[in-house]
Design a protein that fits this description.
The chain is an alpha/beta fold. The chain has helices at residues 34-37, 44-63, 82-92, 106-117, 137-141, 151-162, 204-212, 231-249, 269-273, 279-291, 297-321, 349-361, 366-379, 384-394, 400-411, 428-434, 455-466, 468-471, 478-486, 489-504; strands at residues 2-6, 26-31, 67-71, 95-101, 123-126, 201-202, 224-225. The protein has 20 helices and 7 strands. The longest helix is centred in the middle third of the chain and has 25 residues, at 297-321. Bound molecules: flavin-adenine dinucleotide and iron/sulfur cluster (SF4). Iron/sulfur cluster (SF4) binds next to helix 12, helix 16 and helix 17.
């Protein structure tokens, strides 16, 4: 009885039960295909990083004695889609069954289920054995028909269920579920920001392959890439994070520093999303560091919340809301992205730095994504589909199951507030408070109108004004709305005029 088992490019989990013993009746198949390189225009470092990691994974399996069929992008036999390759392999070999691990993206899951149901050879879909929460956890946890799914509720449920930072009496070990109040300061220079750990993985051969096959990508690449492409490197990155960065992670989690794109962030998302690391081991490493007195509870809890809370929650919400809400557009926004989102050539320092860094490295930290680029797109009425496409393209860690709920929901509020309790919008004052971009900017963060007034100031109030009625029922917006209403009509007019001037010259900002 021969079996074929499919391993997708983001299923590089060597701890999976499939790989625990060698079986001569099993062939694993991995493939580099155009259907995956072309479903959006990816950052070049993402495609290169995934192909390098897949090739290393195939080698690891072979060294361990497994049989692996590996189709490179330029293989003559490659049909360039996962299902077409499976069809050829199943037709030409004597397989009695085939299996695949549950894909994390809707489009792939649909394609594989459709393919499987059309085959006469029996198949089985198994778990990736990666995530901690089952996909339906959000639906089970909240009342049927619930409009909003509070992350905090989900997070506490996960803390109890997984017994993370919990005391034997069932309460949080520090007496508090949430240490955010002690976190999220602006960067004050009290601690030096360490150089990020990078790996210099040779990649010219893959870049040449992509060029040869005319795969369209965006962004910059050198002869090596910094991202971890095997488990050893991923574990090294995790340990470096725990010792060098975690002690200051929580405190500077929301900081924005000019010329500094990584701060105390872990840069673990690429390795986690490829499943080179398991969320459980990352959480355990952080908890152990606290238990051994290496980090304080604020940093430890702040970080664990990202993995056990946000990451798992976002995945559950993706499966709960997608694809039903994929076309939703709560604010009826239809503008295109300014052209400089693809170059970073804007005089707005905060945006220029976040975008240029993203194009150069395929990375931006959460606050750059949420409060810089995401904020600008929301304030200026960019269509959710345009900004979704951009986020899916620009980051090495961008996979729809995590990109979509973060962009469509958390950042753009396009699903009407299932994820965020209020829209994440801010004027220049927020960026100014969190860091030093404004000191280096052409625009004046204190000015509300006039030639060099920070565009975010008037755009913020333009957003509030144009969506006043939609925002009114949200009690978290009450103070802001009242503030706007109480302004003199002529002041309001001046701000709106300024914003409209900026909106009509958006490509020149
Ligand atoms: P750290 O700040 O060190 O956080 C540690 C880990 O926590 C991350 O590696 C990640 O796995 C997890 N995490 C933290 N916040 C979130 C979150 N909101 N959702 C899910 N996981 C989280 N993350 C992706 O992995 N892929 C994406 O495509 C993606 N797109 C995003 C788009 C927008 C508009 C926004 C606002 C956020 C997006 N995020 C995405 C979430 C988050 O910004 C990134 O996970 C994080 O910046 C990755 O950098 P890091 O590994 O240094 O994270
Ligand atoms: Fe950004 Fe405005 Fe500050 Fe310039 S002044 S960096 S545009 S917030």
């Amino acid at each position: 009885m021969k079996e074929l088992r499919l391993i997708l490019g983001d299923q590089l989990n060597i701890e999976h039960s499939w790989f625990q013993q060698c079986d001569t009746s099993v062939d694993f198949v991995m493939m580099e295909v155009r259907s995956e390189t072309d479903y959006c225009q990816h950052h070049v470092q993402k495609v290169v990083g995934i192909f390098l990691a897949m090739r290393e994974f195939a080698d690891t399996l072979r060294r361990a004695g497994h049989q692996v069929i590996y189709l490179t992008l330029d293989d003559q036999a490659n049909q360039q889609s996962i299902c077409a390759n499976l069809a050829r392999l199943l037709a030409n070999n004597n397989y009695q069954s085939w299996s695949w691990q549950q894909p994390d993206e809707y489009r792939l899951e649909q394609a594989l289920y459709e393919f499987a149901s059309a085959q006469s050879i029996p198949s089985q879909c198994v778990s990736t054995e990666h995530f901690l929460a089952e996909r339906g956890a959000v639906a089970k946890l909240f009342k049927p028909g619930a409009h909003h799914f509070l992350m905090e509720t989900f997070y506490r449920y996960m803390r109890k269920r997984e017994q993370v930072l919990m005391a034997p009496d069932g309460r949080p070990i520090s007496g508090k579920w949430n240490h955010d109040a002690a976190n999220r300061a602006a960067y004050d220079g009290a601690v030096n920001i360490p150089q990020p750990l990078t790996f210099a993985n040779e990649c010219r051969h893959i870049v040449t392959l992509l060029q040869h096959c005319q795969v369209k990508t965006i962004g910059h690449i050198e002869d090596t890439i910094d991202w971890p492409v095997n488990r050893t490197q991923a574990v090294e990155l995790l340990h470096d994070f725990i010792t060098e960065l975690l002690p200051h992670f929580g405190r500077y989690q929301d900081a924005l520093v000019d010329g500094q794109g990584t701060l105390f962030h872990s840069r673990l998302s690429f390795a986690l999303n490829l499943k080179l690391l398991s969320p459980r081991e990352v959480i355990q490493a952080a908890e152990q560091a606290w238990r051994h007195g290496q980090v304080d509870i604020e940093a430890c809890e702040g970080f664990i919340r990202q993995i056990l809370g946000w990451r798992e929650y976002m995945r559950c919400l993706y499966w709960h809301l997608y694809p039903d809400m994929s076309e939703s557009n709560h604010f009826d926004h239809h503008n295109p992205l300014p052209a400089w989102f693809w170059t970073g050539d804007t005089q707005m320092r905060c945006l220029s730095q976040a975008i240029k860094q993203s194009l150069n490295t395929g990375y931006a930290h959460h606050i750059q994504r949420l409060m810089v680029t995401g904020n600008f797109a929301l304030l200026t009425g960019v269509s959710p589909s345009a900004i979704n496409d951009w986020y899916l393209s620009i980051y090495v860690d961008a996979f729809e199951w995590v990109q979509w709920p973060n962009t469509h929901g958390m950042s753009q509020f396009a699903e009407g507030g299932r994820i965020a309790t209020k829209p994440y919008v801010a004027s220049g004052a927020y960026i100014h408070r969190q860091g030093d971009h404004c000191r280096h900017c052409f625009y004046d963060v204190k000015a509300k109108s006039g030639n060099n007034a920070c565009p975010l100031n008037s755009l913020y109030w333009h957003f509030i004004n144009r969506h006043f009625d939609l925002l009114k029922p949200n009690h978290r917006m009450a103070i802001v709305l009242k503030n706007w209403q109480q302004r003199k009509p002529e002041d309001r007019r001046a701000v709106i005029d300024q914003a409209e001037l900026y909106l009509s010259n958006i490509n020149q900002l």
